[in-house]
Amino acid sequence: MEWLNILIVEDETPLAEMHAEFIKQNGGCRQIWLAGTLAQARTMTDRFKPDLILLDNFLPDGQGIELLRELTLSGYQGGIVFITAASDMDTVAEALRYGVFDYLIKPLAYDRLAQTLLRFSQRREALKDKARLSQRRIDEMFNTYARGGDRAPLPTGIDELTLMKIRTLFEDPQIRHTAESVAQQIGLSRTTARRYLEFFAANNQLIAEIIYGKVGRPQRIYRSASGG
């Protein structure tokens, strides 16, 4: 994940601190600021120019949707994720109209937030790439897969967040990994890493090759199926 500067706009300080602590533990964050009002959020956004804003809608001095509207119209270059109890159609529709990156309903599921942070980081990285993008990469940038669609359910023992983390290790088609190297980078057991790698291989997203060395057991090496 790319290192992000994040502003959390939430008037319930203990809740904001919980969000911040989770993000720090999840990794990928350089700096986190907390704002409890729209006024503070405006000041801090102007001063720090965060990469991402996690925005509550109901604040003491107004609604977060106002800030979303203002920032969009002013050309703010970062992303905004709504984290709010507001689930009425009008609020959701307006948030979509003004380009919110994601919309999370309270009480917040932290595994869902982790997915959002990972997708946002991946999109920022992709936008830096000068090469032409595949349809799949563009779909990922526009959150097609996050919306569900007609995908088959994942098998037992396979979760979407871990799949996304492992997928990022193979964005460079020249990269090769073993189950051991993936386990070390993601923080999994080697057995779990192999299970995910074999899942990708079975779905033709990775190619598995057997490499025979001069000594020891042969190694199973994985690479992207997109080339290389």
From TrEMBL:
Q: Which gene specifies this protein's sequence?
A: dpiA
Keyword Transcription regulation present in the record's keywords: the answer is yes
Give the record's keywords alphabetically.
Answer: Activator, Cytoplasm, DNA-binding, Phosphoprotein, Transcription, Transcription regulation, Two-component regulatory system
Q: Which residues carry this modification: 4-aspartylphosphate?
A: 56
The entry's protein name is: Transcriptional regulatory protein
Domain Response regulatory span(s) in chain numbering: 5-121
**Major place of localization?**
cytoplasm
List where in the cell it is found.
Cytoplasm
Pfam families given in the database record:
HTH_64, Response_reg
**Matching Gene3D superfamilies:** 3.40.50.2300
